[in-house]
Amino acid sequence: MDRYQSIKDFCCEESEEILLADGFEDAFIGIVSGKMREDVACYDYDKCLSILCKRDKMTHEEAEEFFGFNVIDAYVGERTPVFLRRYKP
Q1: Closest among 10, 79, 74, 76 to 38, alpha carbons compared
Q2: How many domains does the chain contain in total?
Q3: Is 49 part of any domain?
Q4: DSSP string spanning the chain?
Q5: How do residues 26-73 score in pLDDT, each as one tens digit?
Q6: How many beta carbons lie within 10 A of that of residue 52, not counting itself?
Q7: Is 89 a member of any domain?
Q8: Nearest-angstrom CA–CA distance, 48 and 1
Q9: Angle between helix 45-55 and 60-67 (nearest 10)
Q10: How far is CA 77 from CA 16, 37, 39, 70, 74, in A?
């Protein structure tokens, strides 16, 4: 089974309506849940940028600009995935 299908199966155990960010399977962390909100897929922000740099041969700056405009700003409803920026003390 490929990584995408494995993630999809995992998410469907919680809800069939969880949306995934195509092409960022290696950055998938899990599902974010909260009171009075829909469950959503969660991805590692920095890993998403690394994917863009490696896969699409972007510089870090190009990846940040592309990701911010085309992924983070792409609201597709209450089930839009979220992207975690990890705390680095």
Answers
A1: 79
A2: 1
A3: yes
A4: --HHHHHHHHHHHH-TT----TT-GGGEEEEE--TTS--EEEEEHHHHHHHHHHHS---HHHHHHHHIIIIIT---STT--EEE-----
A5: 999 999 999 988 999 999 999 999 999 999 999 999 999 999 999 999
A6: 23
A7: no
A8: 22
A9: 120
A10: 15, 12, 12, 15, 9
The pTM score is 0.91
Domain that holds residue 47: 3-84
For the chain, the farthest-separated pair of C-alpha atoms sits apart, in whole angstroms, at 40
Q: Is residue 32 in a domain? A: yes
Return the amino acid letter for 44: D
Question: Counting every residue, how long is the chain?
Answer: 89
Is 28 contained in some domain?
A: yes
